[in-house]
Amino acid sequence: MCLVCAGDAAAAGLYFSDRGVRPMGRGGAFVAGADDLGAIWYNPAGIVDAPSGLLLDATWLHYTSDYTRQVLTTSATGTTYTQSYPRVSGSTPVLPVPTIAGSYRFGDQEQYAVALGMYAPMTPVTTYPLTISNADGSSSPAPQRYSLVSLDGSALVVTGAWFAWRPFDELRVGAGVQTLIGTFRSTVDFSACPPDNLVCAGEAPAYDAYSQLSVGPIVAPSGNLGATYVPMKKVRIGLSGQLPFWVDAPAKVDVRLPTAAEFDNAYQQGDNARVRFQLPAVLRAGVEVRPLDDQDLRIELAYVREFWSEHQSIDITPTDIQLYKVTGFPSPFAVSPISIPRGGQDSNSIRLGGEYKIPIDTYFLQLRAGVAYETSGIQEAYVSPLTIDSNKVATTIGGSLYVGKHWRLDAALGHVFAADVTVTPQEAAVPRVNPVKGNPTATASVNGGTYSASADTVGVGMQYAF
After folding, report:
1. Could you name the CATH architecture of 4-465?
2. Residue 88 half-sphere exposure, CB side, CA atoms within 13 Å?
């Protein structure tokens, strides 16, 4: 079955929170002020301002979501009304999102720096129920099953190498080459009524086909570059850009065929496909001021634009998937390529953050806080349980303890407040994919309803300077 067709969409899930413990503590305002190895994501020019050393941190993204599905239903008398399903909730596992990086400065004035590192995207790995309990003690298929059941088993990281140079005291420039690597796994149900709404109801449970999609190995290249200009001691200006990640990866599909009579003798041969999509380019700009003579107080205002309009579809091309002995269809029946609409739109965010260093005996304590506002990266009609995104506000606090000349210990806490979203059944634009072709009518959309989501972030880390 072409049950590859939907599960991979979450590989392009939106970044729900900023990443890195110290940058996150500043609300993501870490473009002009980037001066540790968090710079590999925010502005690689800042690597030359970081000491030679190692950085290790990890953040837990505790994400929760609620979805109440709504569909248009026509009664026996021809009256159309909106039907609501029971609410379902999604959650994420305890899965730390890491940064691991090392750098070395060299040159007669340490004007050059190289860095190697890896980090993981801040994308929720969400699980929903496969069934829900009824009042009479029976169970029914969960209403979101055609969008997502689970993303457990996914593991994606970005690895890279970076170089930075300070040609003179007022300017730093840097660039890096990166690769998104790993595997992606999802489970989802599909309605395989042949053809939809003609010989059966489009969502009859007997026609559900439970599938697990494994995509990988994913090897998607990209790169970033940046610059920091210091016109005066108390002001820094930063600008950086991230190229898109171009994903073109093989996939395997494991399917449990429907129990309906048309599939009594049916079987699938072949399980290979290719999945293609693009993750967005990112533009960042920031201005940091250090108003005190000792520069212990640092405040940055930053702007970030993520070009999610580049992400309009996920294209799936089966390479050898065929169905045999499906009643009423040719045998073999080759599964055709599928394009799933995603409805990306460019998102914009404003971040304000700062930090202040306080001497305590032989130590230093650096306190920080930040706030960020970000618009949604997906058009409202395309919001689904697979990708819940909306306008959101993130608030963060954090701090670092400097121990001696070499050690810095970091911690940060944050909360993301996301606006609720209502997608009316009339405007819902994500279709229920039916892998059995020949539909005389359009496939109904499956993403109508109300959505809410929020997240807490907890991060700890350490830096060791040589």
Report:
1. Beta Barrel (2.40)
2. 28
Cis omega (within 30 of 0) for bond into 217:
yes
| 297-306 vs 96-106, strand pairing mode | unpaired
- In whole angstroms, give the CA distance from residue 302 to residue 372: 9
* DSSP letters for 190-215: EE--SSTTTSS-TT-GGGEEEEEEEE
Quote the tokens at residue 150.
């689970």
Answer for the pair 431, 397: CB distance below 8 angstroms, yes or no: no
pLDDT over 50 at 441, yes or no = no
What average pLDDT does the segment 278-298 reach? Answer: 94
Beta strands in 29-79 (DSSP E): 53-74
Kindly report, residue by residue over 42-72, the tens digit of the pLDDT.
999 999 999 999 999 999 888 889 999 998 8
Of the candidates 352, 402, 399, 410, the residue with the CA atom closest to the CA atom of residue 30: 352
| The two three-digit tokens of residue 454, written as one number | 């929020």
Residues 281, 20, 366, 165, CA torsion sign: negative
User: The tokens of 365 are what?
Assistant: 């304590």
Residue 451 exposed, middle or buried by CB count within 10 Å (0-12, 13-18, 19+): buried
Identity of residue 70: Q
Domain boundaries, the chain: 4-465
Whose tokens are 């992400």? That residue is: 311
Query: Distance between CA atoms of 16 and 374, rounded to whole angstroms?
Result: 10
DSSP E strands in 26-154: the ranges are: 53-74, 80-84, 88-91, 96-106, 112-119, 131-133, 139-141
Residue 113 to residue 50: CA distance in whole angstroms: 9
What does the radius of gyration of the chain's CA atoms come to, in whole angstroms? 25
pLDDT at 312: 84
